[in-house]
Amino acid sequence: MLSEKARRHLLGFMALVFLGLATVLLTIYRDGTLYALGSMCLRIGLTLGVLWFALPQVLVLTRNLSPRLTVAVVLGGLIVVATRGKATLLVLLVLVLLTAVEVAGWLLNPTARKKGRR
Fold first, then answer.
1. 18: exposed, middle or buried (C-beta count within 10 Å: 0-12, 13-18, 19+)?
2. Cβ-based burial of 55 (10 A; exposed 0-12, middle 13-18, buried ≥19)
3. For 43-87, how does the pLDDT look when each residue is reduced to its tens digit (9 = 90+)?
4. Helices 88-108 and 110-117: angle between axes, nearest 10 degrees
5. Domain ranges of the chain
6. CB 104 within 8 A of CB 112
C-alpha cells in the first residue's frame, strides 16, 4: 500500500505524462483519431492535475464521511455528469436524505458517540 505522499507524487507524475502526451499528439496531428486521442489525454491530464492539487483536502473529507455517503456522493456526481445536469435535483434530494439518515443513525447510536469522543 502506498503512503499518502507517494500517492500524491504518483498522481502528479501521471498528470504530467498525460499532459506531455497530449502536447505531442496535438502539435503533430491536426485531425483524425490521434488528434482525438490527444484531446482525451489533455482532459485526463488536467483532471489528474486538479486531483493532485486537491488530494489533501479530498483525503480529509473522505475520512470524515461514512463509506456509504462517500459512495453516494461519487455516484451522484457521475449521474449528474452523465445526464448533463437533468438529474441534479433528484441526486441532491437523495444525498440530503442519505445525509439525514447518517446523522440520525449517529445521534441515535450511543456506541458511535462514545467512539467519536476518544
1. buried
2. middle
3. 999 999 998 999 888 888 778 777 888 888 888 888 887 888 788
4. 80
5. 1-63, 65-118
6. no
> How many residues in total does the chain contain?
118
Contact 38, 26 (CB under 8 A): yes
Look up residue 64 and give its amino acid.
N
Amino acid at residue number 103: V
Helices (H), the chain: 4-28, 33-64, 67-82, 88-108, 110-117
CA distance 114 to 99: 20
Q: Which three cell numbers stand for residue 109?
A: 447510536
Global pTM? 0.63
